[in-house]
């Protein structure tokens, strides 16, 4: 007879040779008619004495058996060896063989699933009752084999529920008999408990209480010393049992017997008690100790050093608050605790804010009971805002990303009912007096949420009154911070309301404050005013207004103030805002003066009111042209003379700053020239525009001009010359004058140096 590792032909009991496929161990006819003979080959050398072979033959046969009798024949090849005493080496070999057979059964597609489970049940029963007369503890190997096989096949999901139910009592025996198979039995319990088993649903069978008692004893190590893994598995199974099968009476008993477990929430790194509380809340159980448990969860949410436990506590507390029918007083109590911790250190504050955010999100969700939850959230919103606003840092920069508190308030407003938003924003604006940074940052966070449109509908004219109140703080502000946040609030408002009537007469005082703030000594205030000016010019460009001396005086004053901003600006961060505003104001002045009638132009200075004259005087002072005679003579010219004179002075001042100051100023001025190059009749100012360009392009501005700036100047020069020949003519004349002056100075210096050389 051939041995298993080398057989391809097997000798049957009737001494006929049967050809066997070495890959599947099936006869060539495709069946296992000769299985007994094949197994006889294996059985004769089951321990493979002195031969180095694998056990893959056993696995291949297990993959292909198709009936219970065939499976039993295969297992008996190994199981028969368990009826005698085995040394450790041979016992280990038997365990390996059973594992290989289990591997084959796991992927077997030939066996009817129902029949396979019947086979597993019989094996388990035989192992537990030792009906086959296995020696000593060898029966446990068969039980372990059956448990392992049960678990593997349940993972596949191919079973009938009624066929699985009887296994529960068998697995329970494995748990309570103090066998070495406890961990395997616990592993099988998890997929079993996830099914709606009749054995657990029927109280008459009393399997539920028995299972509960067994799990508690093993977890606590009452019956025998239990490993940590087994103990944790028991607690996981207990949580699963609670969520699926536990009755109210069982729960009461369970809580009483495990009071110490629930007291260790803070120190339990394995979340055992938390998983049980989570399952209890999932079932909506009501019992006397529940409020105490929830309080412990709330405390651990904030104080536990393990982040995983804190997150678990947050989920549990949120489910409790959302799914139980609680009074407003109880809800208030839990929210108040979280709000108290928002004043603590970073970790506690962060956890409390996260919980409040999760609460807002949960209570704003649609679904069953959402109406009452949303009603409570609306009621709570005012208290949340007034509590959180002071927590925003007083030195917060509203142009940067909002702080967690500011972002949370914005998230709350986004989730509120529209009607509530209208009632809430006046409180925010009223709080601006005490917390300007907070409200300014709130405006920035609301920008991301795009909910300020709700405010416009809700507040109508009341909002305008608040804006004026805020702007007046700029003039009386004790600190630049207050002024900055006030201006930022107005900027945020106008940016959110594209159709807002920013030029209404009631806002004249506001714009006067903004124009004046352009002269502030702090750059951040000048920068925010530049942003506001863009809103002003956008509105001005859309409104069909008749030209007037008052409007021209206002624009000239604004242009002069922007020249001051240009002079003081040393950063390129807000360069684009300044450029756009200068383009807007010069273009507007050019257009509005051109629209004045000839009679007004001829007597312009004398037609001005005292306020307008004062604006011009202030403007001339800002741009270092403060002699009243100059202003009066200049403004007594005819139409084009006035236009050329006023705008020419501004352009000349800009050119001076470009040549005297830093590269930022020169870049801004050249950009303004380029953007205005296509303006109608802009050639009136050819000499003022081309003078600084000529000095830079022809090398008359010194050696500190960068290559980039010179290139920019050349591009602007070429653009202007192509737009109108007058610019080219002016450039040539300026260049000739500069060259002549240079030659003259060189001659004078040489003349001064000549006599000195003679003396030497």
Written description of the protein model:
This is Ribosomal RNA-processing protein 12-like conserved domain-containing protein. It comes from Brassica campestris. The chain has a domain at 525-751. It is built from 39 helices and 2 strands. The longest helix is centred in the last third of the chain and has 35 residues, at 725-759. It has 760 residues and is an all-alpha fold. It has a two-stranded antiparallel sheet with strand order 1-2. Helix content is 70%, strand content 1%. The radius of gyration is 45 Å and the shape is elongated.
What is the topological layout?
Blueprint: E1 9-11, E2 17-19, H1 35-44, H2 56-64, H3 68-79, H4 88-106, H5 113-129, H6 139-156, H7 161-164, H8 167-176, H9 182-193, H10 198-201, H11 207-220, H12 228-244, H13 248-257, H14 259-263, H15 272-282, H16 290-303, H17 307-323, H18 328-341, H19 346-363, H20 370-388, H21 404-415, H22 418-430, H23 436-449, H24 452-459, H25 461-476, H26 480-496, H27 508-517, H28 523-542, H29 549-568, H30 575-595, H31 598-602, H32 604-607, H33 610-622, H34 628-634, H35 639-660, H36 663-675, H37 686-697, H38 707-723, H39 725-759
Antiparallel strand pairs: 1-2
Helix pairs in contact: 1-3, 2-4, 3-4, 4-6, 5-6, 5-8, 6-9, 8-9, 8-11, 9-12, 11-12, 12-15, 15-17, 16-17, 17-19, 18-19, 19-21, 20-21, 20-22, 21-23, 22-24, 23-26, 25-26, 25-27, 26-28, 27-28, 28-30, 29-30, 29-33, 29-35, 30-35, 30-36, 35-36, 35-37, 36-38, 37-38, 37-39, 38-39
């Amino acid at each position: 007879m051939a041995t298993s590792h080398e057989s391809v032909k097997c000798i049957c009991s009737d001494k006929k040779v049967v050809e066997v496929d070495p890959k599947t161990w099936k006869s060539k006819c495709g069946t296992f008619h000769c299985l007994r003979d094949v197994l006889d080959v294996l059985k004769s050398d089951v321990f493979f004495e002195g031969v180095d072979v694998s056990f893959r033959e056993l696995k291949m046969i297990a993959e292909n058996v198709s009936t219970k009798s065939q499976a039993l024949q295969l297992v008996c090849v190994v199981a028969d060896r368990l009826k005698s005493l085995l040394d450790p080496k041979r016992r280990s070999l038997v365990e390996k063989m059973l594992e290989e057979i289990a591997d084959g059964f796991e992927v077997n597609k030939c066996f009817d699933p129902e029949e396979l489970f019947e086979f597993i049940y019989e094996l388990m029963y035989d192992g537990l009752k030792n009906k086959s007369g296995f020696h000593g503890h060898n029966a446990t190997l068969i039980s372990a084999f059956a448990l392992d096989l049960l678990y593997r096949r349940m993972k596949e999901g191919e079973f009938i529920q009624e066929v699985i139910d009887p296994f529960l009592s068998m697995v329970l025996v494995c748990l309570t008999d103090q066998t070495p198979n406890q961990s395997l039995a616990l592993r099988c319990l998890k997929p079993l408990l996830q099914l709606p088993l009749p054995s657990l649903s029927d109280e008459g069978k009393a399997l539920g209480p028995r299972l509960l008692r067994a799990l508690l004893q093993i977890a606590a190590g009452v019956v025998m010393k239990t490993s940590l893994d087994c103990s944790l598995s028991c607690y996981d199974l207990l949580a699963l049992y609670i969520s699926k099968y536990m009755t109210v009476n069982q729960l009461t008993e369970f809580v009483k017997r495990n009071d110490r477990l629930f007291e260790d929430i803070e120190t339990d790194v394995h979340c055992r008690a938390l998983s049980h509380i989570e399952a209890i809340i999932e079932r909506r159980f009501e019992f006397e100790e529940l409020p105490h448990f929830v309080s412990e969860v709330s405390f651990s949410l904030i104080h536990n050093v393990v982040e995983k436990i804190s997150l678990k506590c947050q989920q549990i507390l949120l489910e409790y608050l959302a799914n139980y029918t609680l009074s407003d007083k109880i809800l208030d109590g839990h929210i108040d605790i979280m709000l108290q911790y928002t004043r603590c250190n970073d970790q506690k504050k962060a956890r409390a804010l996260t919980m409040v955010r999760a609460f807002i999100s949960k209570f704003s969700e649609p679904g069953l009971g959402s109406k009452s939850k949303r009603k409570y959230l609306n009621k709570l919103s005012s208290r949340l805002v007034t509590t959180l606003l002071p927590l925003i840092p007083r030195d917060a920069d509203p142009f940067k990303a909002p702080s967690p508190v500011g972002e949370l308030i914005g998230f709350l407003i986004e989730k509120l009912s529209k009607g509530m938003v209208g009632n809430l924003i006046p409180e925010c604006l009223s709080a601006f007096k005490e917390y300007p940074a907070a409200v300014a940052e709130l405006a920035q966070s609301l920008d991301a949420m795009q909910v300020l449109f709700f405010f416009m509908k809700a507040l109508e004219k009341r909002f305008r009154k608040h804006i004026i109140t805020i702007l007046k703080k700029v003039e009386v502000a004790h600190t630049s911070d207050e002024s900055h946040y006030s201006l930022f609030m107005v900027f945020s408002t106008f940016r959110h309301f594209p159709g807002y009537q920013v030029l209404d007469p009631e806002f004249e005082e506001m714009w006067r404050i903004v124009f004046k703030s352009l002269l502030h000594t702090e750059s951040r205030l000048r920068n925010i005013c530049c942003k506001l000016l863009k809103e002003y010019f956008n509105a001005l460009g859309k409104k069909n207004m008749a030209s007037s001396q008052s409007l021209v005086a206002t624009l000239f004053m604004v242009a002069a103030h922007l020249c001051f901003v240009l002079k003081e600006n040393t950063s390129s961060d807000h360069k684009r805002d300044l450029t756009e505003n200068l383009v807007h104001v010069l273009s507007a002045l050019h257009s509005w003066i051109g629209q004045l009638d000839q009679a007004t132009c001829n007597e312009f200075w004398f037609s001005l009111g005292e306020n307008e004259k004062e604006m011009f005087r202030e403007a001339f002072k800002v741009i270092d042209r403060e002699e009243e005679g100059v202003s009066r003579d200049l403004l007594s010219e005819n139409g084009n003379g006035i236009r050329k004179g006023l705008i020419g002075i501004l352009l000349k001042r800009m050119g001076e700053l470009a040549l005297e100051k830093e590269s930022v100023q020169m870049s801004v001025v050249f950009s303004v020239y380029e953007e205005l190059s296509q303006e109608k009749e802009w050639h009136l100012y050819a000499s003022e525009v081309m003078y600084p360009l000529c000095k830079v392009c022809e090398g008359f501005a010194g050696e500190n001009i960068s290559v980039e700036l010179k290139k920019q100047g050349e591009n602007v020069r070429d653009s202007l010359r192509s737009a109108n020949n007058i610019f080219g003519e002016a450039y040539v004349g300026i260049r000739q004058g500069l060259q002549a002056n240079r030659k003259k100075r060189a001659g004078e210096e040489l003349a001064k140096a000549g006599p000195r050389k003679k003396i030497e």
